[in-house]
Task: inverse folding
């Protein structure tokens, strides 16, 4: 597993270095409430304004995806439990607009940052290219407190696995 993670990180570093030379360095994204974030690629990961010194779970999900829907309560609980130390950013990639997502967030009681992939296509494309993501959801990228990618996975993770991951990355 560590060898695979090392290969993935090295690949991300190589891809991001070549992209940094040909593309603009920062992206500006907005969540469904209109709050703006600046996302800058680094050789090892991402710097996201407002998320400094926090573990970041960047999850791509769909509103019709059963495993994604199963993950939402876990992320809600973790956001409550680790407030100030964990930032969850969820990007909906099955086509919901901001207004549809606002209703969805209210209905589910989501307490973390939600972004419409429909509205932020450039960001989704950027992450897909860097992480070699082929579209399977849920798709989680976990960043440590320095913004370095430490974990990538497509598929469902249990609440205990998410908690273990947070504990490892917050050290």
Result:
């Amino acid at each position: 597993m560590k060898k695979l993670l090392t290969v993935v990180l090295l690949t991300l570093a190589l891809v991001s270095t070549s992209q940094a030379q040909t593309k603009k360095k920062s992206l500006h994204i907005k969540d469904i409430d209109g709050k703006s974030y600046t996302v800058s690629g680094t050789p090892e990961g991402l710097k996201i304004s407002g998320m400094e010194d926090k573990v970041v779970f960047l999850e791509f999900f769909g509103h019709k995806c059963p495993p994604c829907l199963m993950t939402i309560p876990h992320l809600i609980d973790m956001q409550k439990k680790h407030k100030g130390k964990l930032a969850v950013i969820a990007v909906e990639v099955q086509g919901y607009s901001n207004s549809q997502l606002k209703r969805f967030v209210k209905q589910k009681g989501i307490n973390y940052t939600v972004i419409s992939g429909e509205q932020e296509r450039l960001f989704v494309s950027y992450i897909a290219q860097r992480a070699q993501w082929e579209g399977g959801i849920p798709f989680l990228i976990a960043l440590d407190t320095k913004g370095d990618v430490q974990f990538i996975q497509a598929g469902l993770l249990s609440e205990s696995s998410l908690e273990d991951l947070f504990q490892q990355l917050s050290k």
Q: What stands out?
A: Residues 1-24 have pLDDT under 50 and may be disordered. The radius of gyration is 15 Å. The chain is about 40% helix and 25% strand.
